[in-house]
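pls read this stuff:
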Amino acid sequence: MTDSQPQSPFASLVPQRSVGLKLLLVCRLALLMAIPALFIHSVVQDRRMGADRALADVSEMVGGPQSVLGPVLSLPS
């Protein structure tokens, strides 16, 4: 009995159980998946900086500088 599975044209070029090739493929896929994650990270950081800038602008226009004192003891005269 012989196996009559059709062989791909790349089967003769690539060893079937090469650990190094599998490692290289996994590393390449991890790098490809990191690219969209970096884009998402940059969008989140940009929005966070915009929110901080808006908060600072509104605080500057409405509130002004704040000073925090400690507890104050007032005595009736």
